[in-house]
Amino acid sequence: MTITGKVTTGGKDVTGGSLIFAPIPKGSDQNPGAPSTANVGKDGTYTAKNVVPGKVRVTYSSPGDVFPEGYTPKPSEPAPRSPFNGLVPKQPEIELKSGDTKVDIELVPPTRK
């Protein structure tokens, strides 16, 4: 199935990175299907294709560290870290039914245990 949605944090669009929707095995089923990956666009939207319905684990990877467009760095100046670095989905596991087509993802700082 194909799902679309918007990725936000603190009410603002996340402007890059990627999501993985990995099926969670049920009982003795050790091969629930392949994970699906989706890139997050500059407007916070994503489209994930071939997502397996059922319970899935959602993970987020932030975009790489890059200089702003048009900026000329000084020699050996490190690129600034992505403001989304280290964020995780508020709901790391979700249940997807075959009729679900829109799933918004909210990112939050990880909780300390």
Rg, Å, rounded: 16 Å
Low-confidence stretches: none
Give the mean pLDDT: 91
Subunit organisation of the chains: single chain
Shape: elongated
Q: Find the count of extended strands (DSSP E, 2+ residues).
A: 9
Number of H/I helices: 0
Helical residue percent?
under 10%
Which descriptors would you attach to this protein?
elongated; mainly beta; five-stranded mixed β-sheet; Immunoglobulin-like; 113 residues
What does this entry look like structurally?
By secondary structure, the chain is mostly beta strands. It has a single domain, classed as Carboxypeptidase-like, regulatory domain (Immunoglobulin-like). The protein has no helices and nine strands. It has strands at about 5-10, 10-15, 20-25, 35-40, 45-50, 55-60, 90, 95, 105-110. A hairpin with a 2-residue loop joins strand 1 and strand 2 (about 10-15).
Topology:
Elements: E1 3-9, E2 12-13, E3 18-23, E4 36-39, E5 45-48, E6 54-61, E7 88-89, E8 93-96, E9 105-108
Parallel strand pairs: 1-9
Antiparallel strand pairs: 1-2, 1-5, 3-4, 3-6, 6-8, 7-9
